[in-house]
Amino acid sequence: MTNVNEPQIRIRGLYKIFGASPERVLPDVQKGMSKADVLSDLRHVVGLRDINIDMYAGKTTVIMGLSGSGKSTLIRHLNRLIEPTTGEILIDGQDVMKMGQAELRELRQTRMSMVFQKFALLPHRSVIDNAAMPLEVRGVDETERLNEARKWLARVGLEGFEASYPHELSGGMQQRVGIARALTSNSDIMLMDEAFSALDPLIRTDMQNLLLELQEELHKTIIFITHDLDEALKLADHLVILKDGEIVQQGEPQHILMHPEDPYIIDFISDINRARVLRARTVMKAGADGIPVAGDVDADDTLEHVIARSEGRTDQAFRVMRDGETVGVLTMTDVVRALVPADPSQERQAVAV
Amino acid sequence: MAQYDGVFNALGLREWCDADKVDGPMTMAQLLAKAQGTNPDEASGPLPFPSLDALHEACGRIPQTRDMTAGLERFFLDIKDNLKLVLDPITQPLSWMLDGALWLFTSIPWFVLIPMLIALTWFVSRSRPVTIFVALSFVFLGAIDHLEVAIQTLAIIFVCTGLCVLFGVPIGIAMSKNDRLQKGGIPVLDLLQTLPTFVYLIPLIFLFSVTESKLYGIAIILYAIVPVIRLTDLGIRLVDKDVIEAADAFGMTSRQKLFKVEIPLALPNIMAGVNQTIMMSLAMVVIASLVSAPGLGVLVLRGIRNLEIGVGLIAGLGIVLLAVMLDRASKAALARVDVSRSSR
Ligand SMILES: Nc1ncnc2c1ncn2[C@@H]1O[C@H](COP(=O)(O)OP(=O)(O)OP(=O)(O)O)[C@@H](O)[C@H]1O
Ligand SMILES: [Mg+2]
Questions:
Q1: Which residue numbers delimit the ABC transmembrane type-1 domain (chain B) (predicted)?
Q2: Ligand 1: which atom is nearest the Cα of residue A65?
């Protein structure tokens, strides 16, 4: 393991341009020519523009954006399924772009695994053979790889389905196989491209909880892609918002919610249930002054939880605790105020100024 | 003189035309005209199409059409010896294989061979109705004394289809991996598929002696290999891109990808190609009886030549039976791989 304070993955100045001769177009794109102009005048598609992200070991980085914003393109650069036009990708300090064929294969086999939106299981293989595939590729012998696969299948709740074929399973179960396959590879980086987008809402929530549970225990470095804000907020330690191939804002999700920097993000967050995603620590006032409190809440409790505690009375206040220590005070007035985003039109003006 | 004289005169080519004028042998048209007592050189009648022959009349330098066919023939004769020097040793094993298979199939006693073939049917198809049908067909063919010829036809088909798969699948894989190869290969495949079956035999008769089995072996293989190649190429290109991406993401080598992902997923398509290949070799093996391929085709040929209608028709029925047997057995095999691998 590398130093925890050093990002495990660093992306620096990454550009991707699709088209006949990206190098020719690159200088114009770097000078700031818009995606629409590049498409109409130069007949190239700007996939990604000047991407810089640090991703920390053991954390979940969520990349969010609408369809066509370049999320899949970005995640495929990390294991070089797509070659960048220019830029640097450092993994544990090693530049992925400078790797040779063998090194790259080693990276994909042992240090990164991937979960796909459409599951991408091998249809002609049983569930356990699918889960064991990453080890098979590495040449691990059969009993060992099947044991490992069996263990992870059980961990994702698929005990007893080892001999089934993918087409006999529901979508949710197929994606569990996909996750088991990624876990079997025992790599510390997991790339997940809209892994839950093809599932219906209930199953989806199940899978998100499964992922959180696994993460609690395994501390993988997860890069998770989604176009769903609720999912992003639920999973993210670090949230990156992409639009038309550019990062519009990145940071701690709670911070982005309270301080959106772009009209695009304000629109994005305007219709989420804030009570469910905002946490006590985000809204509280630091330090404990003399306000009488009705009880204690945890720093990570959601406002929804706090409102339930207050039984709807707005004259109360709570002490906010973390690890047994007081970190601040949360008044119900602040809670109610935080539930309504400042009028979007005003906020937009504020941003524009 | 001829009707197109004016054209050459106008172009100022008269001298070039008449430079070394030698009167070649007369054409059929000239001979006919002479016999009828008219002068062929006289410009008369409606304007003929400016064909080589018509232009030749006006200008001696323009070759006649028969020069072209003769040239082609001479070309073949010229390269024949060199080509034979190369092709003969390469293709010799084919003769051995065909003769060997024919000898083997006809020398195994029927009470061993038939159960073996029925077992083989069961093994590939795992289908009770198909196996029973095949068994009954053999009994019927035996009862009408056509077993030996049918077995000969079958032996030839086994050898040729086996070789088609052996060469066709790798060629198809190569084509699926290389767009340029595919672009170049498709016209050749189209040509092989559209060439009338008899035309195959013409250059082959030139090269090899009619008594050699490889002559019909090559004809059958060239004709029947097309669907395996096409469908292997197609099958591999149609493999789900997401699955390929997953294989790449987990670091498979191209070799692992080919054998663990692409070929297994393309197998239903490849099998469909094999089925067509079998049917096409059966079609060709009948025609190949013209160049001494043994089997049911010989009887059909006898029916045509000697107007022995009964012989021809019964042999035809035998061919239909064989065709249905082979088709059902290979389709059942195809259905088997399809079901166990279906992603839907
Ligand atoms: N091979 C390619 N050639 C040309 N343009 C491409 C190619 N791949 C992606 N693009 C373009 O790059 C942009 C980003 O595509 P990408 O697939 O990364 O989007 P996405 O955010 O993953 O969208 P979705 O949510 O639909 O999966 C799109 O405008 C797309 O048209
Ligand atoms: Mg995508």
A1: 150-330
A2: 21
